[in-house]
Amino acid sequence: MQAWLKHNPIALIGIGILAIGFVPKMLSGEFQRDAAVSQQLTEQRKADEMNAQRMAIAQENRKTLERIANERYNGCTLIVRADDHTKATGLAIGSPVLDGSRPGVNLADGVTVCDQNGVTAIITNGVAAEPAVTTDRAVVESALRRFGYDGTLAGKLHYSAPKQ
């Protein structure tokens, strides 16, 4: 070993530099702090990865629900105001929906309902449930036209619809 060090004085200098650099670090506890910071960074990276996965799942769920809502708008029953059945209104998830053709009677389970805002639901246990939302205004406006609404502020619905 001594012979090798005599032939490689630069290696001896390198070992000395490493010793000078590491010994104070070891004595000061800097290695422990570095290890703790490294652990925190690893945990943060894992948390970020999990959040990214959750976001991807949420985005996929939103797309699925939008497809469901778009399909529901093809055959849904539009919700109108209780005080003026010529005007559409918003759907309240978890609330009963009145049958517009039978005063005081709620819609039956299994009926698909929709509103002017892109929200659809299925009547379950007497209330609007299983919501799905679309942001496709063309789909919503197509359904409104199907019920006689012409898209103007003065436009009126021309049918007896469920009331909210």
UniProtKB/TrEMBL annotation:
Q: Which UniProt keywords apply?
A: Membrane, Transmembrane, Transmembrane helix
Q: To which species is this protein native?
A: Stenomitos frigidus AS-A4
Residues crossing the lipid bilayer are 6-23
Official protein name in the record: Uncharacterized protein
Going by the entry's taxonomy, the superkingdom of the source organism is recorded as Bacteria
